[in-house]
Amino acid sequence: MATMQRLQITGLELFYKNGYYNTSIDDILKELSLSKGAFYHHFDSKEDFFIQIIQNLIVRKMYAMLIEPIEGHENSLDLITNCFENALETAVHNELDFGFVLGNFISEFNGKNPEIMKHLSDILKIWEVNLVSAIQRGKFNGYIDRHVDSEGVAVFLMSSYLGIRTFMVENAPSARKYRFMSQLRQYFKSIQVKTPTV
Amino acid sequence: MATMQRLQITGLELFYKNGYYNTSIDDILKELSLSKGAFYHHFDSKEDFFIQIIQNLIVRKMYAMLIEPIEGHENSLDLITNCFENALETAVHNELDFGFVLGNFISEFNGKNPEIMKHLSDILKIWEVNLVSAIQRGKFNGYIDRHVDSEGVAVFLMSSYLGIRTFMVENAPSARKYRFMSQLRQYFKSIQVKTPTV
DNA sequence: AATTTTACCGACCAACTGGTCGGTGGGTTT
DNA sequence: AAACCCACCGACCAGTTGGTCGGTAAAATT
């Protein structure tokens, strides 16, 4: 595989595991048995390197995991439920979950690096916009109560998702995932269209 | 004020603002015009310093802001609503919100420093236990539906709280707080005891 | 008054940081 | 075959890191 790609993949892994500021370029190079020269041949700086990682890896995966799965015309709430279910399942198995990766980096860069924050915020914005669309589609298609605030639901969903991921990291991920999903369904019940039970 | 306290207060401020690994002891000392000698006279190491900050500042504030306010015998859901409302309001004004401080540090130390993680997890555990108690009290007192899973509600509440804080940090905190609280009330409606509307 | 303890100073250290730069060897152009 | 480009090497640099240590002046203890 191309050296540039290998650097980015390993870079993201280590940045995620140890944090951006706590991972040195040397750490990444040691992992791949490459030299400083190789790194600075491909990237201008550590910051430029990370921005390319965001654009090449994080954005793409966010789309694949959290945006495309909710684009269909089925019941939005079902789509979102399944989407979260799958995303959290990869999280249980300690794989990279890009929604969380994003939240993590936002914590790390907040107030420290406005340039990088802008890139991260943009992704969050895209997620938000797509969630709002999905919810409005759900209203239009008769699945969601027309009186609910789509923006509010989106904010609530994103918040709880970012939060449960922080929380899963610390203890009993599988049990917490299960409990979280149950309560999410409970919440969804409260915003769906009430069909009188015959 | 005693030098030791001033070090801890300034330390927490800077650790919170810039991250633990991205804040040097020299940064803290410069802020207070103190020397290395002063620091190592009072603390064994940077890690020891941070653990004392957790125990002296973070634990106390967590109790004051997120635990004691939900201990009363009124309607648990009201208590929790008010508690979150207040905590998020301090967050809007960019003051230290210790629930979030906790979540932030958990992200930062996860997988890097088990010793510190243990201390942070303990606080989260205390919060969880107290939330579960409050919810069970709510069931007992006839405010909350007896069929709901208390543990699940607690996990959901903590998640969404940690999440909204990450999310508020990035954009339009006040609007997001408002939207979040609306949806929280919506969720609470779905778990409270259903009194037939006459 | 003599001694010990406390609180603090600041020069110093080895390890590490992001980044620079002169090189080198293989492949492609001319 | 000469000239050039590309991908990479690794010694080196200045600045920063957490941490050490010998010293000192004031306060507390004897």
Strand content of chain A: under 5%
| Biggest pleated sheet of chain A | none
The number of distinct helices of chain A, counting runs of at least 4 residues, comes to: 9
Which assembly state applies to the chains in this document?
A: homodimer
- β-strand number of chain A: 0
Low-confidence stretches of chain A: none
Q: Could you say which overall geometry of chain A the principal axes of the C-alpha atoms support? A: elongated
Taken in chain order, the helices and strands of chain A follow as: HHHHHHHHH
Compute the gyration radius of chain A: what is it? 19 Å
Largest interface by Cβ-Cβ < 8 Å: A-B, 48 and 48 residues
What do the pLDDT scores of chain A average to?
A: 92
Q: What is the percent of helical residues of chain A?
A: over 70%
Q: State the end-to-end distance of chain A.
A: 61 Å
Which structural class fits the helix and strand makeup of chain A?
mainly alpha
